[in-house]
Amino acid sequence: MSRLLRGRRASARLMSLALLVALVGIWEAVVRQTGISALVLPAPSAVAATLWNTLASGYLWPHIGTTVAEMLLGLALGAAAGLVIGVALAESALLDRVLKPYVIVSQVVPKLALAPLFVLWFGFGMAPTVVMTALICFFPLMENTLTSLRQVDSNRLQLFGMLGASRTQTLLRLKLPAGLPGILAGLRVAVVLALVGAVVGEFIGASRGLGAVIIAAQGMMDTPLMFAALTAIAVIGLVCYQATLWLERRLLRPYTDQP
C-alpha cells in the first residue's frame, strides 16, 4: 500500500472521528442549554456514565455476550443456508423455478409477526432469536450468490467447456472465485441484518440480551440505560462490520494483487 493511500485513509478516519466529536458536543450543549429532561433525551455524559457503570458492575456483559452469541449463530446458519441455496438455484433452472417463490414468501412475511410463533415452537431462550436472525440474514447472501454466479463472463465459461472441465470444476474454479466479491458484499449486508435480527428477536419474550435491556429500561423509564444499550449495539455492529471488511480483503487479495 502506498504512503499516499495510507495518508488518505488516516485523514478520512480523523475526519470521521472529528465529526463524531462535533456531533456529541452539539448534543451535549443542546441538552444542557435547553434543560431537556433526561427522560426525553439524556446528555452524552449521562449516557457515558451509565454505560461505564453497567460495564464496571458487570451488569451489561452477560447481555452483550448473549446478543453476540445469537447474532453469530444466526449469521452462521443463515449465511450457510443462503450460500448453499444460492449455488443450487444458480446451477439448476428447475430448482430456481420451483423454490424461488417460496424463498420470496419467506422474506416478505414480517419476521416480527412470526416472533410469537417462534417462541411457541422453540420456547423461550436463544433458539427463537437465532432462528429469526438466520431468516433475516439468509436472503442477502442467497440473492447475491445467485446473481454473482449467473453473471460470470460467458467467454470464460465457453473456455472451461472447451477444456473439458466438469460442472463441479467450473463451479469451484471459475464461478465461485469470479463471484466472490458479490458473495462477500452479501455477507456484509447479512452481518448488519444479523445484529438487527438478534436485537429485534430479544424484544419478544427474551430475558437476556441488549434487546431485553432496552425493553426493561423502557419499562423503568430509564432512558440513559436505553441509550447505553444502543451505544453497545452500535459498537458491536461497527466491530463486526470492520471484521467483515478485513475478511473480505484477505479473501480477495489473491485476485487483486498485481504481479
Radius of gyration: 23 Å
Quaternary status = single chain
CATH class of the largest domain: Mainly Alpha
Reported by name, the CATH topology of the largest domain is MetI-like fold
How widely separated are the two ends?
Answer: 14 Å
Name of the CATH superfamily of the largest domain = MetI-like
- Structural class estimated from helices and strands: mainly alpha
Describe this structure in words.
With 259 residues, the protein is mainly alpha-helical. The chain folds into 2 domains: 1-36; 42-257, MetI-like (MetI-like fold, Orthogonal Bundle). The chain is 85% helix and 0% strand. The protein has 10 helices and no strands. Helix 3 (61-91) packs antiparallel against helix 4. The two termini are 14 Å apart. The mean pLDDT is 85. Pfam families: BPD_transp_1. Residues 64-248 form the ABC transmembrane type-1 domain. This is ABC transporter permease.
